[in-house]
Each structure stands twice: as C-alpha cells, then as structure tokens.
Write a structure and sequence with these properties.
It is built from 2 helices and 7 strands; from the N terminus they run ααβββββββ. The protein is of the alpha+beta class.
Length: 145
C-alpha cells in the first residue's frame, strides 16, 4: 500500500521456508484423512483385506513422519464449555440437513461440545507458542442465556 519496508534477505527466506513447511504438513494431514476415508469403505469388503493392511501401514508411516517433525493431533473433550479464548483452536460445524452426514462451517459461538468430528493438528508444542495447522471440528449445544 505504498509503504516500503527494508528487511534483511535471510529473514524473508526463513518466513517463506516456514510457510512452505506448514503447507507440506497440511498436505500430509490431508493425505492421512484421505487414506482413512478409503479404509472406512475397504474394511467392509472381505476381498480387499490386503489393500486395508497396506493402506493402514502407509497411513501409519505418514503419521510417524508428522510426529517426528513435532506435529501432533489434539482434540477438545466432549462436555467442554467453549470460551472465546478457544476460538483460534475450534471450528464449529452444523449438520447440513436431517439424515445426512455432511457438515457445514458455522461462526464461532460459545457452547458445550457434544461431538468431535475431526481432530485438530498443531506444531510447536502446547500453549500460545503452538502453530495451529488445522482447527478441531466440533458440534456444539448452544449455551442458553
């Protein structure tokens, strides 16, 4: 916006590298979830037992790679009352319709967690220093005032 900022070249490269590393982590998480969705369908078929074992092994190797790099899954316990401070870590979902398994994102609001749909992932430990790669996706019972 017309403002020039002089940054040392090394600093800019570090930021780009860190963003690229997070993008790689996010892609690995997406692949793990893709394998998990395949496994749900394949487990029902007796003919695909070999494929199930291979997919589980591959998924575990991807999880091990993420774990070795400091990426860890996290969830919020069912029954937890959400506060505004947890907005950064939680994505509220709602059912798209009656009798469907599909969900849609909703704006954050305080309430009691009734179900964890998908775990979140973070890198860099716990607390405020952790970088959230993906928020925990939950269903809530809205707080009545």
């Amino acid at each position: 916006r017309g403002t020039k900022v002089n940054l040392p070249e090394g600093y800019v490269t570090m930021v780009i590298a860190k963003d690229r590393e997070q993008a790689i982590f996010e892609e690995l998480i997406t692949q793990i979830e893709y394998f998990e969705s395949l496994l749900v369908g394949y487990r029902k078929n007796r003919k695909l037992k070999d494929a199930v074992e291979e997919l589980e092994g591959f998924r575990k190797r991807l999880e091990k790679i993420l774990h070795n790099q400091g990426v860890e899954p996290f969830v919020i316990d069912v029954g937890t009352m959400l506060t505004l401070k947890q907005r950064r870590k939680v994505q509220i979902l709602g059912k798209k319709g009656w009798g469907t398994r599909d969900f849609m994102k909703r704006p954050f609001q305080p309430g009691e967690v009734t179900k964890v749909v998908r775990p979140g992932y973070r890198v860099g430990g716990e607390g405020e220093k952790a970088v959230i790669l993906r928020k925990v996706e939950v269903l809530i019972r809205e707080a009545s005032e």
